[in-house]
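so the lab meeting is tmrw and i was supposed to have these ready like two days ago... anyway. pasting both below. for each one the top line is the aa sequence and the line under it is the structure tokens. i havent really looked at them closely yet so no promises
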Amino acid sequence: MAQEEKRTERLHKMFLEYLQIERNYSPYTVQSYQRDIADFILFMTEQVIDSFDTVQYSDVRLYLTKLFEQKLARTSVARKISSLRSFYKFLLRENFVNNNPFAQVSIPKAKKRLPDFFYEEEMSALFRACEEHTPLGQRNKVILEILYATGIRVSECCNIRLQDIDMFLSTILIRGKGNKERYVIFGSFAGDALEQYINNGRREIMSKYQKDHDVLLVNARGGPLTPRGLRGILERIIEKSTLDGKIHPHMIRHSFATHLLNQGADLRTVQELLGHSSLSSTQVYTHVSKEFLRKTYMEHHPRA
């Protein structure tokens, strides 16, 4: 391998270590950066560009053209450019390059797609589809109750440990993206489901398969439940319900936020509960809420 190629790979690796150690990014996020930078390195090889320091703005424009020719979604292109902008910012800070050719590149933002959500009566149908007389049925009820009561992500739900739950204060300690911690609140329905599952269903499963760990949610053999397993459970709950159409588990998180706003909760509170670092990430739900109000008005006002 040529000296410049070795240097390129070394800088790539240094940046990934920086993301892991200093920024504490999740493995999934680091992998995304890795793919985006590796794709650009391949482009550099094709264009006979020797090093990151020799990349010019014109090269970046050519790379953008190549991405759009591949029919990539605008969001995918924007993510790649953002990754490379951050990468060059790191190189500039460490004095490995003299300029950031991605600093002035901007991708016109596409119109945000409104998140899908369940109406309240649809959530009721999901709860009715849960069995409560079996250990696994009690677990499934807990999953649904927690996701709807707190708005946490599927991965965050799988990471809950018994000691993270405070039944007296009705709170759960959640470790979110980048290992950021926050407390979420749950209500009486989720509390009742938790007590039934922990004291009965979970204990029975753990005893049957002689397991001993502190992860709240377990699979059919007592091991920790994975995000993939949890999504499969939600899909089966949906299949048992009376609901139709294309449905994904993240809709429960969307429903949590939308229903809170519809009932008068302020945006800042919803932002904190969702674990969004930026208020702009939460603002999309105000559009959903306004659409709900418009629909209600048009259906019920006598002169609409």
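ok protien two:
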Amino acid sequence: MKKCLSLFAACFFIGLFSAKADVMSTPEVTAIDAVSVVVGLYAKEHNGQLPVSWDQLRNDIDLEKLNQSLVGWAAHPIEDHYAFINQPLSLPDSEGSQVLLIRTVPLERGTVNRQQWRYLIVRRGDGRTVSVKLPEERVQTMLQKAGITITPKAGLPAIESAERLSGG
């Protein structure tokens, strides 16, 4: 039995009270919001120590059920799409923040004005763990400044279509 909030309870809570009006609710957004809740709870249960791998979260979240709930991800589980960042990486203009997980492949929407972004899980300066959406341009600048290279898992495309992954 999982110690933390059930995945569905966390998703329901986040869906009701999310302040992300600009983020379209998709299976991935719901899943990454649930993971951010579990990451925060993990830190509380481990005296502020943050998880550094998916294995550390397996007692608190059922990754198989989470992956089954994601439309279009049958070949690649969430663990393939998100990497833990185990060195200092902060959000631009967010003093004291620490990026904990980052989507390894940018998402893209649109055919004319193509927009690319990534989702990240961040521990803010106030200690709260949240998920955020950043434009790919800002992500690249942030990674370059920190000297970090993100390598996607084998088999993932360089860019993924947000419409395809959301069932659109």
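from a quick look at the 2nd one: The chain has one domain: 7-165. Strands lie at 82-84, 98-103, 107-109, 115-123, 129-135, 160-161. will dig more after coffe
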